[in-house]
Amino acid sequence: MRLADLHRTTSFRLALLFLMLFGASSTALFGFLYWQTKNYSMHRMQDWLGSEQASFVPMDRAASTARLEAHRVADPGLERPFVLFDAEGHRLAGSQLALPDDLWSTLPTGRAFRFSIPRAGGGTLPYLGHAERLPTGEVLLIARDLRQSRDFGRLVVDSFLWAGLITALLGLGGAAYAGIDSVRRIDAVTQAIQRVVDGDFSGRLPVRGRSGDHARLVHVVNGMLGEIERLMQEVKGVCDNVAHDLRTPLTRLLAGLERTRRRAVTIDDYAAAMDEAILETKSLLATFSAMLRVSEVENGARRAGFDHVDLGQVVGDVVELYEPVAEEKGITLRLLREPRGAVMRGDPSLLFEAVVNLVDNALKFTPPGGRVTARAFARDAGIGVEVTDNGPGIPQHEREAVLRRFYRTEASRHTDGSGLGLALVAAVARLHGMTLTLTDAMPGCRVVMCTGDALPEPVREEALAEAPAR
Fold first, then answer.
1. Do 49 and 85 share a domain, yes or no?
2. Is the domain of 19 the same as that of 160?
3. Domain containing 412: what range?
4. What tens digit of pLDDT does each residue of 73-118 get?
5. Which of 256, 258, 273, 465 lies 20 to 30 A from 399 at CA?
6. What pLDDT score does 70 carry?
7. Nearest-5° Cα angle at 368, 364 to 369
8. Are 318 and 399 spatial neighbours (Cβ–Cβ below 8 Å)?
9. Which residues, at least 6 apart from 317, have a Cβ–Cβ distance to it below 8 Å?
10. Residue range 11-32: average pLDDT?
């Protein structure tokens, strides 16, 4: 952990930004509440002073003097002094409160005002007062001590300052924690990426939880790394398989030409040798064309031509195309139709080509007298295509491998083909967001290419008995 990198992290900066925004909004809110509370308290005191002044209006001199003296006894601390002054400013009755000469000379009447008087121990005592001049020239002063209000205001301000300090410390601590956690995650991600850069494509970014932006990004990047690893393995496998599988036809081509050069003596010999060389060359070109076709599909450029495609119609066209081939081999080719339509967005030519490869492989490995069924299905979990045969099937340990380019099982080593058919089907499936699944048909092989995760139920024997043979 490098503390120097802490302030550069987005988490730390965002936490500080939100802390400042929270502090600014809290300060504004506190200021507004403090101002409103203070104004409310002052208005209440002014209303009280006014009401007390009004209570003396109906009283005669004797009653008012008696009340003033009673209040003086009840309020010895001068928290709420009631005082009656003569015209010269001398106290006549009420609380023991004397006004300074400078205040008496400018004494406002008929409204509330603030004033202070010296305190015996030093300092001053703040008051809010209300004075009324009586018809006799005397002045009645009613006041209220402001120390409680002032102390309450200081308590509120001190509480806000302490709360702000604690909030700032907690916010800084949270920002530091978030920043440190972010730096640790970044360091872990950096180390994982560095291992990938050094050639370890099996490495993945560390995952902490399944929620949050970081977790979502790591999930996407890990998916990308998995795809890169798959592509790199395919590239390596393609190079090895090209070197292995194309070496044999090239060797045959070279050997045939050398043999013709040594042994051919007539024009017919040379013509036959040229025909063999042309066939070998066409086979090589077909293999390279298939490789380019797979690469084109995997590139994803064909998504621009997607349209609504009826998979039932596609499967029907493929079955109709391969009817003569199946009849020639003595294989029963059945098309199963379902009442629910299987329509999806896709490239019709690529989907047709994928189904052609599936049906062609099924017919290629099904023995005479066997059966091949094809259908398009639609379920709530997804739609897709299924091709089933009762041939030798594919061993379970080779079902992933046969989807790679040029891979061929031992049973198919001596049959025509380049080992690119299922690789093309897998590429078409990925392009359309579909999964390609190979299972055991007991006996035979069942290949399902569908959207979603759920596989449809296998075709029942009674359904095959009812389905028309094509």
1. yes
2. yes
3. 301-466
4. 998 888 899 999 888 888 889 888 888 777 887 888 888 888 888 8
5. 465
6. 92
7. 125
8. no
9. 352
10. 85
